[in-house]
Design a protein that fits this description.
Blueprint lengths: L11 E5 L3 H13 L5 E6 L3 E3 L4 H5 L9 E3 H8 L2 E4 L2 E5 L4 E4 L4 E3 L2 E4 L7 H5 L5 E3 L3 H9 L6 E5 L3 H11 L9 E5 L11 H13 L3 E3 L3 E4 L2 E4 L2 E2 L5 E4 L7 H4 L11 E3 L11 E3 L4 E3 L8 H19 L16 E4 L5 E5 L2 E5 H21 L5
Parallel strand pairs: 1-2, 1-9, 2-5, 9-19, 10-17, 11-12, 11-17, 12-13, 18-20
Antiparallel strand pairs: 3-4, 6-7, 7-8, 14-15, 15-16, 21-22, 22-23
Helix pairs in contact: 1-3, 1-9
Bound molecules: flavin-adenine dinucleotide.
Length: 375
């Protein structure tokens, strides 16, 4: 079957963003061959930083670059072109993207896995002490060069904010780490997790003397507040506020949800443009709720790979990513222990941290081997 719009066989497949799902697509190409004559991946960095190991790096359990996936190496092994650059504009009807350096790349079929953007300044306001967790590579570079802090505020009560609060509290090699305040906002701590997990996390926060504030944070007249309470003096403000939609997606003419994320159907295909796919944090499934998290981006990867293979062969996509009723979340508490959450179940201890290490390292090793490293 030919492309219904151009009436010709699609030739050039463009992956935009080297995110968690696209590395699974590259893995599929290494194992099963390229689905077309020409495939390109456009992404700003040769490596993907796996967010799961970032809190462990901050608390001193991993080396800085232990959580990297060699996207350029995977592309090379797959026979795809690695194009270093950042998409700044997409014209879906013209089938063209423009990069931040003004290059133009044409495509027949494109897939977006660029993640979301930081929202710190939009939500909190301007402040030189503000460090956004997104993009995660910039976050790592900022933390790496950050001098010692006496008092840090982490804004965001999701799993990322919780893990970072624990990690920063345990950052210093000294016995007494920096004072850490976790500001969860009015949505409260871990709103998507069970009561038992919330209780275990609150207990651990209190044990490690991390203050928890359940008001919304804002920066007003140069001061950080939780509701009406001033949190000053604070040296560093970490914003872990969840993903925002990139402007170039909002402005593209692609169908989006209310927040501006690319609206996709159950095959991860744009609801407005059949030749464009999107996955991970940049996408918004319209048939069901799929939260923005690394777990879903990882599991949707093989489904996307199968659907891209189908459309490049001129067929309709058939595969659907169906999230399990619950996923295992493992949150490090920075002290060599971790808390596990699975539906209503909760477990904690050193063995949970060992399990997290095993799962994270297995995932990273798989890609290191595929990219041609030793793993
Ligand atoms: C500190 C922290 C800890 C976390 N821990 C967990 C966890 O334990 N479990 C979990 O499930 N989730 C976790 N998350 C959330 C998780 O990181 C994201 O949900 C996940 O990274 C989304 O994957 P993705 O493939 O959509 O995008 P990303 O992983 O963000 O990858 C996107 C890629 O695209 C590239 N890119 C960005 N913009 C462009 C552009 N314009 N053009 C081309 N390429 C571009 C980026 O450089 C990057 O390589 C955590 C987040 C943080 C901040």
């Amino acid at each position: 079957m030919k492309d219904p719009v151009t009436r010709r066989q699609p030739e050039h497949l463009l992956l935009i963003g080297g995110g968690h799902a696209h590395v699974a697509v590259l893995a599929d190409w290494i194992r099963n061959g390229l689905p077309c004559d020409r495939a390109t991946i456009l992404t700003p960095s040769s490596h993907l930083r796996y967010s799961g190991t970032v809190p462990g790096w901050i608390s001193g359990h991993y080396a800085r670059d232990e959580g990297l996936v060699d996207v350029a190496g995977l592309a090379r092994r797959a026979g795809a072109t690695f194009h270093e650059g950042r998409c700044s504009r997409i014209e879906p009807d013209a089938r063209m993207v423009e990069t931040d350096t003004g290059e133009r790349i044409e495509f027949d079929i494109a897939s977006l896995d660029t993640g979301g953007v930081g929202q710190a300044r939009d939500v909190l306001g301007e402040d030189p002490r503000l460090v956004d967790v997104r993009p995660i590579q910039n976050f790592v570079e900022r933390i790496d060069t950050l001098g010692p802090s006496r008092r840090i505020a982490v804004i965001g009560g999701g799993a990322g904010g919780v893990e970072l609060a624990f990690a920063l509290r345990n950052r210093s090699a000294d016995e007494r780490g920096p004072d850490v305040i976790l500001v969860s906002g009015e949505a409260g701590l871990l709103p998507d997790f069970s009561k038992s997990v919330r209780k275990a996390v609150e207990k651990q926060l209190s044990k490690q003397l991390i203050s928890l504030m359940k008001q919304d944070a804002h920066i007003t007249a140069g001061g950080l507040y939780a509701g009406r309470t001033s949190l000053e003096p604070v040296d560093t403000i970490i914003a872990a506020l969840g993903s925002g939609a990139p402007d170039w997606v909002k402005e593209s003419g692609l169908a989006t949800d209310e927040a501006g994320f690319a609206a996709v159907d159950r095959h991860q295909r744009s609801t407005s443009h059949a030749h464009i796919f999107a996955v991970g944090d940049v996408a918004s499934r319209q048939d069901r709720n799929v939260p923005h998290s690394g777990v879903h981006a990882v599991f949707a990867g093989p489904v996307l790979a199968a659907n891209l293979r189908a459309v490049m062969a001129g067929q309709e996509p058939r595969d659907t990513y169906r999230p399990r009723w619950s996923n295992l979340y493992l949150m490090s508490t920075g002290d060599g222990r971790a808390i596990a959450s699975y539906g209503p179940l909760c477990a904690k201890g050193r063995w949970v941290s060992r399990l997290k290490h095993f799962i994270d390292m297995r995932w990273l090793r798989k890609y290191a081997v595929l990219a041609g490293g030793s793993g």
